[in-house]
Structure formats: structure tokens, C-alpha cells
């Protein structure tokens, strides 16, 4: 874990240096950087995915449409521009159940459904995670603090330029009668990646 943090800190420092160099040479401006950051803070991010999951939890017919034709179902919702761009062109949802737990990974690089999950975390891009998630997913999930019983199948989905997967996690017990807004507030990016379960705050 410490090694990953050190590598992420090193990568962040390189990004800042590159950003400063590009601004200095006039290739981009500080305003350009601010607009990109604002785009991912306000328009594209895990808050979109959380709304989709919450709607799927309370509306079974929507969930079925989401599983059958993910882009079409998402298009029904009042999201900002660009949901089909920025790596959202070919999104596909899979559902966690009492029989199957899903995990997404990108074995080739770091393809990711940005519109619904935001920017990928560092560990998702890490070559070690990518290799081990395919080879020993149950053990990797265990290291994330997620114990999956042997009776439950673990399905790993290799997201790519052709299909970008995301997970509809299981709805936690104790949320009966909650509004979509309340449900969306407890859905995390990790749960939509299959690396965690949604839990009710205590």
C-alpha cells in the first residue's frame, strides 16, 4: 500500500511539472486546466453512476433496460452533455446478486466509463492489479477488505475501448423506503467497480 501511495505521489508531481511546462510554453492555459477540472467535478463523475444505481434499485423496469441496453437507459435520465463521449461511448452494466459478484478491470491499459465513474483511481491503472484481478480476483478483493464466500461466483469483466463495464452493486439491507437521493448518497465508485459493497452509514 505504501508503495502505491509513493508511486501515486510521484506521478502527481510529474503531472504538475508537465502542466506547468505546457502553460509556460503557451500550449495550454491555466483556464484550460480549470475547465477540465470543473468538467469532471460538475458534469462527469461517480455522482452520475450513483444516480443510475439508485434509480435501478427503486425501478425494476429501468434496471432491466439498463442491463439490456445501458446507453439507451442512461439516455432516459437528465444528465449533462457528453454522456456518450469521454470514454462513455459503449458502456455496459452488470448486476451483483446473491449468486454473482462482479469486478471490472482493464487488462490492456485503463479504459474506464468516465461519465459514470469519474477518473480511474491509481490502483485501477496499476499493472499488478490488472494482472492479479484476472488471475486471482477473490484474493484481490480480500485485500480490498471484501470477503466473497466461495458459494458466490466472482465474474471479472475486462473493460476496453469496445465495452466499458460498470457494476450495479447490491442494495444494502435497511434502505427500504429510502428516496433515490438518499440511496445515491451511499453509492461509492469502488462499489460500482466491484471492489467494495455499499454499506449503510452508522
TrEMBL record:
It catalyses: an aliphatic primary amide = an aliphatic nitrile + H2O. InterPro entries: CN_Hdrase_a/SCN_Hdrase_g_sf (IPR036648), CN_Hdrtase_a/SCN_Hdrlase_g (IPR004232), CN_Hdrtase_asu/SCN_Hdrlase_gsu (IPR023900), Nitrile_hydratase_asu (IPR018141). Residues 11-196 form the Nitrile hydratase alpha/Thiocyanate hydrolase gamma domain. GO terms for molecular function: nitrile hydratase activity. Its EC number is 4.2.1.84. It comes from the Bacteria. Keywords: Lyase, Metal-binding. Pfam families: NHase_alpha. Belongs to the nitrile hydratase subunit alpha family. This is nitrile hydratase. It comes from Trichocoleus desertorum GB2-A4. The lineage of its organism: Bacteria, Bacillati, Cyanobacteriota, Cyanophyceae, Leptolyngbyales.
Amino acid at each position: 500500500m505504501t508503495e502505491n501511495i509513493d508511486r501515486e505521489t510521484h506521478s502527481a508531481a510529474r503531472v504538475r511539472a508537465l502542466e506547468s511546462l505546457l502553460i509556460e510554453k503557451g500550449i495550454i492555459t491555466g483556464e484550460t486546466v480549470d475547465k477540465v477540472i470543473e468538467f469532471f467535478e460538475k458534469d462527469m463523475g461517480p455522482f452520475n453512476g450513483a444516480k443510475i444505481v439508485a434509480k435501478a434499485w427503486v425501478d425494476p423496469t429501468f434496471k432491466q433496460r439498463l442491463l439490456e441496453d445501458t446507453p439507451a437507459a442512461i439516455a432516459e435520465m437528465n444528465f449533462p452533455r457528453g454522456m456518450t463521449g469521454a470514454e462513455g461511448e459503449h458502456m455496459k452494466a452488470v448486476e451483483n446478486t446473491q449468486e454473482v459478484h462482479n469486478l471490472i478491470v482493464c487488462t490492456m491499459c485503463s479504459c474506464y466509463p468516465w461519465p459514470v465513474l469519474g477518473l480511474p483511481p491509481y490502483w485501477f491503472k496499476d499493472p499488478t492489479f490488472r494482472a492479479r484481478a484476472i488471475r486471482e480476483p477473490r484474493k484481490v478483493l480480500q485485500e480490498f477488505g471484501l470477503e466473497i464466500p466461495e458459494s458466490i461466483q466472482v465474474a471479472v469483466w475486462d473493460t476496453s475501448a469496445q465495452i466499458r463495464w460498470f457494476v450495479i452493486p447490491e442494495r444494502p439491507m435497511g434502505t427500504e423506503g429510502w428516496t433515490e437521493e438518499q440511496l445515491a448518497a451511499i453509492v461509492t465508485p469502488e462499489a460500482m467497480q466491484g471492489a467494495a459493497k455499499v454499506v449503510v452509514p452508522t
